[in-house]
Design a protein that fits this description.
By secondary structure, the protein is of the alpha/beta class. It has eight helices and six strands. Helix 3 crosses helix 4.
């Protein structure tokens, strides 16, 4: 278990006192949570947990056209971006609620136990350095840290490095690939012979995920499985519906 996620006894007593003074509420429906729950329980009620744990479809293999079939990446998503998963993700990204990272890490760990149980370690897609300073948090890394603690596998830093780049929100596959290859590079750490779960927050076209998976294979990974929190619905990972130029973005 990641030492940074282990909670000492004094932290549990402090949290119990806070729960007594300020009853905890569900992040989704705002209903009051049961008191005396486990210290590592996700901050969502039972009904919302059941909705979050609905069976998820396996996405098509995310693969760039010029990569060999052996380099294809199996990608899984916890849910669509417009549903409850998207609500938690927006709470983390735009409202800076750390509890949302804990809930999404729990959800990702539950998905991994069902869909990809044989993982040796997790690697988070690195965040843009400038946006990380502004937001004071790396979303994928925060989620992966909680998921790794629940799965009792290490979260490996330093495998993939990233430099600053323009936003990829409205770009098409070709320009996403060009920018992703320019700003991502291999780090100093090797992952020889390991099955790696590559964690990202949103899957749109799969370009960033595939570029990072290619780097992990160069670093010696035996297998790479894409683990995304949310999938942007209406976008086929193998064929984006529309391509925007950098000038129009």
């Amino acid at each position: 278990m990641d030492a940074s996620c282990a909670r000492p006894p004094r932290h549990r007593w402090w949290r119990a006192a806070l729960d007594l003074a300020f009853p905890p509420r569900c992040l989704l429906c705002r209903g009051q949570l049961a008191r005396g729950r486990a210290h590592d329980a996700p901050p969502v009620c039972r009904g919302c947990r059941e909705r979050l744990l609905r069976p998820a479809r396996e996405l098509p293999p995310v693969r760039l056209a010029r990569l060999p079939a052996a380099a294809a990446v199996r990608a899984y998503a916890c849910g669509p971006l417009h549903g409850e998963v998207g609500t938690l993700l927006r709470g983390l990204k735009f409202y800076r609620r750390p509890a949302c990272a804990r809930a999404l890490g729990w959800l990702l760990a539950e998905r991994v136990r069902v869909l990809a149980p044989r993982l040796d370690a997790l690697v988070a897609v690195p965040a843009d350095p400038r946006r990380r300073v502004v937001r004071a948090i790396a979303h994928a890394e925060a989620i992966a840290r909680h998921a790794a603690a629940r799965l009792a596998v290490p979260l490996l830093p330093g495998v993939i490095e990233r430099t600053s780049a323009p936003r990829l929100t409205r770009l098409g596959r070709r320009e996403r690939e060009r920018i992703a290859r320019r700003c991502h590079r291999a780090g100093a750490r090797r992952v020889d012979g390991l099955r790696i779960g590559l964690v990202d927050d949103v899957l749109t076209t799969g370009t960033t995920l595939t570029v990072c998976a290619e780097i992990l294979r160069q670093q010696g990974a035996r297998e790479v499985v894409g683990l995304c929190v949310a999938r942007r619905c209406g976008v086929d990972p193998l064929r984006p519906p529309r391509v925007y130029s950098a000038a129009r973005a």
